[in-house]
Specification:
- The strands form four sheets. Strands 3-2-4-1-10-9-11-15 form an eight-stranded antiparallel beta sheet, covered by helices on one side. Strands 5-6-7-8-12-13-14 form a seven-stranded antiparallel beta sheet.
- Helix 4 packs across helix 5 and helix 15 runs parallel beside helix 19.
- The longest helix is centred in the C-terminal third of the chain and has 22 residues.
- The protein has 610 residues and is α/β, with parallel strands linked by helices.
- It folds into three domains: 235 residues, Aminohydrolase, N-terminal nucleophile (Ntn) domain (Glutamine Phosphoribosylpyrophosphate, subunit 1, domain 1, 4-Layer Sandwich), CATH 3.60.20.10; 183 residues, Glucose-6-phosphate isomerase like protein, domain 1 (Rossmann fold), CATH 3.40.50; 155 residues, Rossmann fold, CATH 3.40.50.
- 34% of the residues lie in helices and 24% in strands.
Length: 610
């Protein structure tokens, strides 16, 4: 959510800031703005509702110049989508601030500051940061000292960058709960909420830790921890690639990323599946000694990643012979829970910065979990740095807000984890080899599933006037049905729900009529006959079904049922394979609905606030 870019240099930084914002558009936003300090200490601000291109046009028209600047894309939380609520926010035309996160005690601060004579021009919580810092500057403090003192007044989460027209050659940044990274240049330095924003200007980064405050000038970066002690943080050479400007001939990033899945799963498996017993190499130093003690796995995640965890529970309990619990991070962190003996906490996040998941990890450490492992797509992210172990998926940058390739690589990672834990819990070698053989076929099976695109594009026309839908699955396909429903609602805005098929007669059957599409996931597994009974329950009540079925499952299309044949695959990889046609369905329905596929309304890619 939201994007921050800052720069201090000898040259004009406007284009650097705008390019950085464009590279962060995938995160989701509704307005954008920039504040610039020129060499004479003049402070300029331009803000626009809508896309970064609107801001870029306005900047070009005003021929803005500045050697120090901050920029922001806002995803509205406090206050509507208006120009006056867009960042940066000012205090007395001296201090400019951009901010990701939520200042929870802003109402009390706003009242106090108003009594001191400060005038508020926005409805946001962020403006309180600018006024508090300004108040500290009025006490005679330096900008660094002012920010260090100001942050003690804030409750909540913030990644913030502050500039002062009286001290024009520096930025001061502070991080608490919302990620910030410093980019190191030659005679110039940068700040951003995501390293992807800065790849055109640097590959050298410092990831700020929780509670850090840093002073950034053209030539120096000085970092202080939450106690105020000066500290050194590791400089990381990034190998991350970002192709946000290249859809590779596809109409949308989402479609490109759907079609990238065979390749990214091959990348995730490469040099790993053949060395599945090299546990420390796969998951981190000390992994083998940890995994051999695991008797319970607690999975914590949000959204699509939560569905990956729900699917993994079936694998871990059946093949790794350990009990498994799966919980939404925002629920886990706000309730009292019992910690199982020898319990491994597993967090899942594409970005590694998901606020609730990160908070759950920190809580779990206090609760006494044996160890923590994260499955993540971003090296250097907070979850990776703060976990004991990590399995890095190699999905590459995922630009579409609706997750596709990140999800299937997470599932692939869970198969690897299942094998790694299973070897210490009686997984027979013959079963292990069968699973490995199935995993090796996975990229090819997904390529076959992608061949259903033309058929799915055609049947998507039948959803043009629909407003509701049901998704059904059994066993490990139930979470896949949930993921299919989530994708459809995310990008087409059709209300969609998923149910375990056996639950139909416990309520959902009341919804069935010829206006309610029912999407069924039907691999040829041990639950197929039970699923066929559920299909007949829908048919008997006039429902219209779209059945994604194994070619050997013997479903036939008729007036009440459209059958989309899916290539046969082994049961253990079927959840991953069946995900792909559901992604395609949501994509083509969204096209028909005319929605913004890559940046659906009200949603953000990286959810870094509660």
């Amino acid at each position: 959510m939201c994007g921050i870019v800052g720069a201090v240099a000898e040259r004009n930084v406007v284009e650097i800031l705008l390019e950085g914002l464009k590279r962060l558009e995938y995160r989701g936003y509704d307005s954008a703005g920039v504040a610039l300090l020129d060499k004479d200490g003049n402070l300029h601000r331009i803000r626009k509702v809508g896309k970064v291109n609107n801001l870029a046009t306005a900047v070009e028209n005003e021929t803005a110049l500045g050697t120090t600047g901050i920029a922001h894309t806002r995803w509205a939380t406090h206050g509507g989508v208006t120009e006056y609520n867009a960042h940066p926010h000012f205090s007395s035309s001296r201090v400019a601030v951009v901010h990701n996160g939520i200042i929870e005690n802003y109402v009390a601060l706003r009242k106090q500051l108003s009594e001191q004579g400060y005038n508020f021009t926005s409805d946001t919580d962020t403006e309180t940061i600018a006024h508090v810092v300004h108040n500290m500057l009025d006490e005679g403090l330096s900008l660094l000292q002012a920010v260090q003192k100001a942050v003690n007044h804030f409750t909540g989460a913030y990644g913030t960058v502050v500039i002062d027209k009286e001290d024009p050659e520096k930025m001061v940044v502070a991080r608490s709960g919302s990620p910030l990274v410093i980019g190191l240049g030659l005679g110039e330095n940068f700040i951003a909420s995501d390293q992807l924003a800065l790849l055109p200007v640097t590959r050298r980064f410092i990831f700020l830790e929780e509670g850090d405050v840093a002073e950034v000038t053209r030539r120096e970066v000085t970092i202080f921890d939450e106690s105020g002690k000066q500290v050194e943080r590791e400089i990381v050479e990034s190998t991350v690639e970002h192709d946000a400007g290249d859809k590779a001939g596809y109409r949308h990033y989402m479609l490109k990323e759907i079609h990238e899945q065979p390749a990214v799963i091959r990348n995730t498996l490469k040099d790993r599946i053949e060395h599945i017993h090299s546990t420390d190499a796969l998951f981190g130093e000390g992994a083998e000694s940890i995994l051999k003690q695991v008797k319970h796995v607690q999975i914590i995640a949000c959204g699509t990643s939560y569905h990956a965890g729900m699917t993994a529970r079936y694998w871990l309990e059946e093949y790794a012979n350990v009990s498994c619990s799966v919980e939404i991070a925002s629920e886990f962190r706000y309730r009292k829970s019992a910690v199982h003996e020898n319990s491994l906490l597993v967090t899942i996040s594409q970005s590694g910065e998901t606020a609730d998941t990160l908070a759950a990890l920190r809580l779990a450490k206090e609760l006494g979990y044996m160890s923590a492992l994260t499955i993540c797509n971003v090296p250097g992210s907070s979850l990776v740095r703060e976990s004991d172990l990590a399995f890095m998926t190699l999905a590459g940058a995922e630009i579409g807000v609706a997750s596709t390739k990140a999800f299937t690589t997470q599932l692939t990672a869970f198969l690897m984890l299942t094998l790694a834990i299973g070897k210490f819990n009686g997984l027979q070698e013959s079963t292990e080899q069968k699973i490995i053989s199935a995993i090796k076929t996975l990229p090819g099976k997904i390529e076959e599933a992608l061949n259903t695109a033309d058929v799915i594009e055609e049947l998507a026309e039948e959803f043009a006037d629909k407003n509701h839908s049901l998704f059904l699955g059994r066993g490990a396909q139930y979470p896949i049905a949930m993921e299919g429903a989530l994708k459809l609602k995310e990008i087409s805005y059709i209300h969609a729900e998923a149910y375990a098929s056996g639950e139909l007669k416990h309520g959902p059957l009341a919804l069935i009529d010829d206006e309610m599409p029912v999407i069924v996931v039907a691999p040829n597994d041990e639950l197929l006959e039970k699923l066929k009974s559920n299909v007949e329950e829908v048919r008997a009540r006039g429902g219209i079904m779209y059945v994604f079925a194994d070619v050997d499952a013997h479903f036939e299309s008729d007036d009440t049922m459209r059958v989309i044949n899916i290539p046969h695959c082994e049961d253990i990889i079927a959840p991953i394979v069946y995900t792909v046609p559901l992604q395609l369905l949501s994509y083509y329905v969204a096209l028909i609905k005319g929605t913004d596929v890559d940046q659906p309304r009200n949603l953000a890619k990286s959810v870094t606030v509660e």
